[in-house]
Hints:
To bacterial alkanal monooxygenase alpha and beta chains. With 335 residues, this protein is an alpha/beta fold.
Amino acid sequence: MPELSILDLVRIREGSDAKTAFDHARDLAAHAEDWGYRRFWVAEHHNMPGIASPATAVVIGHIAAGTRTIRVGAGGVMLPNHAPYVIAEQFGTLARLFPGRIDLGLGRAPGTDQMTVRALRRSIENSDNFPQDVLELQHYFTPAEEGQRLQAVPAAGTEVPLWILGSSTFGAQLAAELGLPYGFASHFAPDMLGAALDIYRGRFKPSQQLDRPHAMVGVNIVAAASDAEARRLATTQQMSFTDMFRGTRGLSRPPIDDIESYWSPMEKAQAQRMLARSIIGSAETVQAGLAALIAETQADELMIVSDIFDHEARLRSFEIIAEVAGAIPATAVAA
């Protein structure tokens, strides 16, 4: 059975605020720790009123301070937005504060629109330098050599583990070449999942960080007491994707009874394509969906998104997921 981890979007809900979103993320991480989840990640998104985690390192510090053992990290930092040196300083600081618990996932996309890229004082062409920037960043986490004049203090020697994240085969090739763990964003871009995993595993070169491939697969899961209730809770995420297509990103919305009244046929088709890997339903439905996904992908780890409006319902969703995953027989997920 693969490890289970959580990707939290730190959603700001209608009728609430960013502080509540931060505290709900921290509370979820504390519960997830008790339920056996391996890691808890947040992502860098800019200029999105409903997502409170653009200052990713700061949010990670808040969550790590409220937990004891679960790994906390970025899923991910969009490296083209930053100088690698600054990211090394930030995550080196986190690694000193929370030894052995910090992960750094790296993405090549800007995670925002071109207007915001300009506000960040970066260039869209920075993504072309992504492989070189990853290597530079990795170097800053290695022990400083005698006489080394440029150090990322206090990062040197922390050996913060890096991950390559992506939604295409480019990231798979880079992760394989550098011998790094790889996470595929099939929770919103499922089309190339199989091809990316094949490339990553087929071309992997062992490294100092990793001696064999480690593939993480992103998946949306909404679990509830019944299939009908889970489908209702899932409308929050479906509306969010619809709003994205409309260019009207906003706060997280409460679920509705009839999603068909919200989206057009074209919007429905677009959303369903991006959410095609979603597992939505009761404990029994979720268990069957998980077993099928694991058997198909042979993932070493699942990074789970459960984008639910109500905090208590979201906690219960992740609790159900942990319970049913632990009960899946090994024979049900064998290749």
